[in-house]
Each structure stands twice: as structure tokens, then as C-alpha cells.
Amino acid sequence: MALRIGIVGCGKIAGNHARALQQVPGVEVVGCCDPDLERARTFAAAHGITTAVGSVGELLDLGLDACTVCTPHPVHEEVVVAAAQAGIHVLCEKPIAVDVVAADRMIEAADRAGITFGVLFQRRFWPAARRIRDAIDDGRIGVPVVGEASVILHRPSSYYSADAWRGRWDTDGGGVLMTQAVHQIDMLQWFMGEAVQVSGFIRTHTHAEHIETEDSASAVVSFASGGTATVTATTGANHNLGNRVTVIGQTGAIASVLEFPEGQEGVNEIWTVPGSTEFRAPFTSGVRANLDVTEVNAGLSDFHTLQVQDFADAVLTGRAPAVTGRDARASLAIVAAVYESSRTGRVVDLTPAPAPVTTKENA
Ligand SMILES: NC(=O)c1ccc[n+]([C@@H]2O[C@H](COP(=O)([O-])OP(=O)(O)OC[C@H]3O[C@@H](n4cnc5c(N)ncnc54)[C@H](O)[C@@H]3O)[C@@H](O)[C@H]2O)c1
């Protein structure tokens, strides 16, 4: 019996989902939905999907086993909760949601329904990223003590004007941190462990005339391990230098994963891990750096396929998917804490407050 899957939201990234799902044996894409029904129909025709409908309810009624969610981030919660309540497994695009309270409601709905709930962070499937995770696990890097996530991107103003929801707090939930850097923040905390304190600043510079969310951010994160890291992010650079995550471990070993041009498979640009030392020099004149966002998405397609394969296998075998809702909550919590820190001027504590001690006096 094939796993019957539907796609919710038929915009730009949904194409990666359709192509990925069609490559997974034992999976059948039975329908797609978008409130823009014409868009859903065009998408269905382009990807050989038999049924296109205009609402999530109609899609879930097709008798799905699972769905993938490709709507704007503030809409993730209502779709994931509706799917969970219908007993349908869900793979949701990043970020999980735009605030941690919504993420908690999604996780709770999935737990209550006993469904598989995964969140898409396909860069974790790069061999270069897994190589770092493995070298942390086997002790060659040791506990990461210093980290750096660098997200130096170019977006033209047309990137924001093309989709009415982008760049506004109510419909996008954030800017470069929420939409782009959340990938590298996810990878940073996957390497470094639980984040406990965050401080930072957000600003809107290059795109100030047409967006209200941040196009630039600088932040510092401290981790339960004692390690610390910085995050630098912008969509306002005139050249797209892509994304880099670097860690330095207790052994002194340095390992980085660089994505340049943006959307291309990440590579270990720096690798000084016992056993081998490698350096790459990727920034040379003549590389076309400022790719269109559709080219960026296309470059990531193979890794969407790996994560969709992992999700389908998780559903079929009952194991946890590679990136769970709880895993995805962690990067959102860091992004939300940078916003809070920038607003309040304070360091934000991410650790839960200790339970009050009950004594004879306060019982
Ligand atoms: N993993 C990645 O690398 C990656 C890359 C791009 C986008 N994304 C994520 O995918 C999501 C969508 O981004 P996009 O660039 O495809 O946006 P988009 O604007 O191109 O597409 C979003 C689609 O969702 C539809 N939609 C809105 N409300 C809906 C609802 N209630 N039900 C069904 N459909 C609805 C819109 O009509 C639109 O067609 C975002 O959360 C984004 O962060 C992830």
C-alpha cells in the first residue's frame, strides 16, 4: 500500500517537495491545495498530481496518510494542528512557527495524536555537515567551545515585493533571522547543543524602504556546555557570500561548512581535525554569486529529497524523523530570543525557571 501524501501550499518551495516525494518509493502524491486555486491547478498539472483543491480541509478529506506544509511560516501552526487532529503525519517547512508558544501547541497536538511530526532543515543532510556532527560524536573535535554562523546574503528588493507576505511582522514573523539564518542557527545548535542565553540586535538598513522586519542581525549565544557562538546575518549585501557555520572544539580542531554560492551543497571549507587537514578557497572572481531564489531552491532539491525519504521511512517504521518538532523549536527559540533581547536590551535566559521549592513555610 502506497503512503498517500498531500502538499499544502503550492508556491516556490513546493516544487522541491513534489520532486522529492515522486522519487521516494512507496509514496503517492494524491493532491495539493492552495487558497489560490488557479495556482494549485497549475502546480498539479506541472507535477502530474491528480487533485488540486482550494483549502486544507478539502485536502485532508482526500484520505491522506501524511502531508507536507509549504505555506508562509505564520500559517504553519493551523495546518499542522489540523493535520494532527485528523491523525495525518506532517512534514512542515522551516521555521516551525513564528513564536515558541505556537511551536509548543504544534508539538503538543502531534504528541496527543501520536503522529510523526518532522520539520524541514535539509542542510543537515549535507555530507559535510554530517561529517562535523560525527567528528563531534566520536571525540575528534571534542565539545564545541566556540562557534560562528555567518549568513551574508544578497536579496534584491523584488524578492520582498514578489510575495505580499514577506517582510511584515504579522505575515512573515521576522526577517533574515526567521527566514534565512534559522537554517544556520539550527545547524549551530545541532553542533553545539542546548542554548541557554542569547543577546543580540536586529536592524533594518538596506531594505528599510520596503520591509518592516530586520534585514540584519548580530547575536551572541551561550550553550549549556559552556561554549559560546556568534551569529551574523544580513540580506543587504551587494554580493551574496552564502552561509558558513564554523565550530572550534575542546581539542582545538576547527571545522566549517560553507554554502557558496547560496543553495549549493555545503563543503568543509576548513577542516583541521586530527587525521586530516583541508582548506578550500571558494571566493574567486568570476563565480556568479547573486543567484535568483528559484536557483537557490533548485540547488537544495536533492537534500529535500533525502529529508523527505527520511520522513517517509520514519512514518513507515514508527521511528522519530531526523528533525523533530522539538529539534526545530530550538532554533526558533534562539531567533525569538534575539528579537526579545534587541527589544529589551537584556540577555534572554532560555532555560526553564526551576520549579519552586516547597517548604513548610510556603506550602
Ligand atoms: N527549506 C528551505 O530551504 C526553504 C526554502 C524556501 C522556503 N521555505 C519555507 O517554505 C515556506 C513557503 O515559502 P515559499 O517561498 O514557497 O513561499 P510562497 O509564497 O512562494 O508560497 C507559499 C504558498 O502558500 C500558499 N498559502 C497561503 N496560505 C495557505 C493556506 N492556508 N493553505 C494552503 N496554502 C496557503 C500561498 O498561496 C502560496 O502559494 C516558508 O515557510 C519558507 O520558510 C523553505
TrEMBL record:
Gfo/Idh/MocA-like oxidoreductase C-terminal domain mapped to chain residues: 133-350
Residue span(s) of domain Gfo/Idh/MocA-like oxidoreductase N-terminal: 3-119
Residue stretches spanning the membrane: none
InterPro entries: Gfo/Idh/MocA-like_OxRdtase_C, Gfo/Idh/MocA-like_OxRdtase_N, Gfo/Idh/MocA_Oxidoreductase, NAD(P)-bd_dom_sf
Alphabetized Gene3D superfamilies for the sequence: Dihydrodipicolinate Reductase, domain 2, NAD(P)-binding Rossmann-like Domain
Top-rank taxon, per record: Bacteria
Coiled coil start-end: none
Gene Ontology molecular-function annotations: nucleotide binding
Family as reported in the entry's similarity comment: Belongs to the Gfo/Idh/MocA family.
This protein's name: Dehydrogenase
Organism name: Rhodococcus wratislaviensis
